[in-house]
UniProtKB/TrEMBL annotation:
It comes from Trifolium subterraneum. It comes from the Eukaryota. The lineage of its organism: Eukaryota, Viridiplantae, Streptophyta, Embryophyta, Tracheophyta. One of its GO terms (molecular function) is L-ascorbic acid binding. This is Fe2OG dioxygenase domain-containing protein. InterPro entries: DIOX_N, IPNS-like_FE2OG_OXY, IPNS-like_sf, Oxoglu/Fe-dep_dioxygenase_dom, Plant_2OG-oxidoreductases. Keywords: Iron, Metal-binding, Oxidoreductase, Vitamin C. Residues 212-312 form the Fe2OG dioxygenase domain. Gene3D superfamilies: B-lactam Antibiotic, Isopenicillin N Synthase, Chain.
Length: 362
């Protein structure tokens, strides 16, 4: 099976860390263990500067139904393409995913993280793998994120690991299955629209992403008494084509690095945040930007999120799209197979934009 072929040989990790929840939360007297403390954490923008006369910039918002009907040269699409260039992040409302489904998803995912540790251990990341519950430990002294996460490949269905998705509690599994198929429709539509902004015909984009590789990460961020000392998720860019993030329980914490400073991302209720991943930056030859982001956890509230990553299928070649390349506009990135891309991506931890930088043409 392709999945084991890809994940078994690529790195040498021998163990993983299950989660912060059971390790730390139940022993508050221990304080914050050293392994979570990020002494080099960059501060958030000074929020006292956020007043009525000088508000903080917020990520652009789009109505999905309007985008779907918008003509190729419409102002709305141009606004979207600019958002992908300048922000790499945007919000989508009126996306067609029902609030009943979103409520159910919230309930199921919250319940999953409340399961006893023995239950969750069944899904623990196995040596040599990257999928499952927990965090891969690759080096001694590696700093850990203040979040319990579960990452797995969900599409194509034959790539699902038998001990992960198929073994989830059935109500969670069914809800996720519905959510996956709803998000696939949304994701493919967004990819098609983004293709227009880089002179790609929809066929080209579809060929790369159709029946592509889809994966998801659900994360539970427990409250932390000193959030400024830890990262919920370390600054990184996503390795995906695009990511659709759902801030399940409405608690904020996502931050992006914009013009050199970290700013908070505010979500509208029930909106999805969509961001450009490294693969889309490569395909668009740098026209769209895959932006650094992180999560800062909350002092009082837990935060729950689920991100869905849309990637090209195995066998696809990824590289700057031919229609954009001219002698004045040479390729900025190498072209490589999706297999090689994965090997490179999964051989390191989420850390800045190091993977993308390695794929740059010198
Ligand atoms: C991710 C991510 C952000 C969040 O999973 O790649 O950036 O809000 N998640 O959980
Ligand atoms: Ni991310």
């Amino acid at each position: 099976m392709v999945s084991s072929h890809v994940t078994n040989n690529v790195f040498t990790s021998s163990h993983s860390f299950l989660g912060v929840l059971d390790e730390v939360i139940n022993k508050p007297q221990k304080g914050i263990p050293e392994m979570f403390i990020r002494s080099d954490k960059e501060p958030l923008i000074d929020l006292s500067m956020n007043d009525k006369t000088n508000p903080l910039p917020t990520i652009p918002i789009f109505d999905f139904q309007t985008l779907l009907c918008a003509g190729d040269n419409s102002t709305e699409l141009h606004k979207l393409f600019s958002a992908c260039k300048d922000w790499g992040f945007f919000q989508v409302v009126n996306h067609g995913v029902s609030s009943e489904l979103l409520e159910k998803l919230k309930f199921e995912i919250q319940n999953f993280f409340k399961l006893p540790i023995e239950e969750k251990t069944k899904y623990k990341i196995k040596p040599g793998d990257v999928q499952g519950y927990g965090t891969v430990i690759r080096s001694e002294g590696q700093k850990l994120d203040w979040g319990d996460r579960f990452f797995m490949v969900t599409n194509p269905v034959e790539m699902r690991k038998p001990h992960l998705f198929p073994q989830l509690p059935s109500s969670l599994r069914d809800t996720l299955e519905t959510y996956l198929s709803e998000l696939k429709k949304l994701g493919m539509a967004i990819l098609g629209i983004l293709g227009k902004g880089i002179k790609m015909n929809m066929k080209e984009m579809e060929e790369i992403f159709d029946e592509g590789n889809q994966s998801m990460r659900m994360t539970y961020y427990p409250p932390c008494l000193q959030p400024e000392l830890v990262d919920g998720i370390n600054p990184h860019s996503d390795g995906s084509g695009i990511t659709i993030l759902n801030q399940i329980n409405g608690v904020g914490g996502l931050e992006i690095k914009k013009d050199g400073v970290w700013i908070p991302v505010t979500f509208l209720p029930d909106a999805f945040v969509i961001n450009i991943g490294d693969i889309m930056e490569i395909i668009s030859n740098g026209v769209y930007s895959s932006i650094l982001h992180r999560v800062t956890v909350n002092k009082e509230k837990e935060r729950v999120s689920i991100g869905m990553f849309f990637n090209p299928k195995f066998g696809a070649e990824i590289g700057p799209v031919k229609s954009l390349i001219t002698s004045e506009n040479p390729p900025l990135f190498k072209t490589l197979s999706m297999e090689d891309y994965y090997k490179s991506f999964f051989s390191r931890n989420l850390d800045g934009k190091t993977n993308l930088e390695r794929l740059r043409v010198n």
